[in-house]
Amino acid sequence: MVNLKFDLQTVKIDAGELVSYNVGGYEFIHQKGSPGWRNSDTEMFPIIGPTADAGFSVETPKGNAVQDQHGLLRELDYIVVEKTEDSVELVKEYKANTKVKNSKYPDKSTAAELFWPYDFSFKKSFRLKKDGLYISFTIEGEQGMPFMLGYHPAFKLLGENVGIKANGKVIGIPEIIEVGSRAMQIPNCESILLSDEQSLVISTEGFGHFMLWTEVDNMVCIEPITFYPYDVEQKELHKGFFHLNADNGNFKVNLQPKK
Question: Which Pfam families match (predicted)?
């Protein structure tokens, strides 16, 4: 467990997963074991979305790759690169075509192993500052590598009148639940305000869009994404790829509490 502290803010990170962001005794992050989701955050990379209907196959310029829902990054382990009192940097490294065991197999998937035909390095860093928690992602690899990126944090909800303000519209939790497993698309949006007993601004750089998901009223996932995967059929997920270059490998998510 990695612990960070800055004034009244504390952060706990378990194997790269943000399991607590507490400000003056108020917890913003969904807690494992509570109804809703078994995790508190994860990354979706190098693809976002389900692949079962496409036979777990995703088209790339180097041939088809076997990927389960949301990619294979979550099956790799983070290594701590650097740690200070208020910051930490972690990394995952992958060698092209290395077979990775799929934790969803056999209960939730028929794909026993996953692979991606490109080398990559994926860095995730957390830094506490006076006004909030700054999270950044850096992707390094072969120029032209296709990829999507989604960040999938879950926020704890305490109030009865929770609202999410995005693109000038206020969205209630019942509306998100009604959409179901596909998640609600919030296109062309870089900042969302989550209003609860305490409010939080989730602002981003590099992603461009969000999607919202929950099946319960005690948590909500507010997910920055580069591509909404339900805009295409599963066999056409490749249409949503970025292609890695010097200008598009850096992404940021800032969590800023508001009184």
Answer: Aldose_epim
